[in-house]
Amino acid sequence: MSLAKCSRLFVMLALVVLALTVNASPAKAAVYCGGDTKGTTNYYSDASKTVLVGTYTWNDCTGTESLTGQQTQYVTTHSTCC
Known about the structure:
Elements: H1 3-24, E1 37-44, E2 52-59, E3 64-69, E4 74-81
């Protein structure tokens, strides 16, 4: 295998690992509050986002978080500063 093909394979594998790592953790919204946010991420069964199958809530100010149900790629996230 040539060096160019090996490099491309390495880059593709690194991107796959990164994508799996990002999807494995609950999503927090990109709100800048100096680090302290609270919010909810809702997980849905499909792209229509009509059937709720899981919920992740967090509060950085109190140090609490909760995950119920299942995580999917279909999400809505709402967060605010606390």
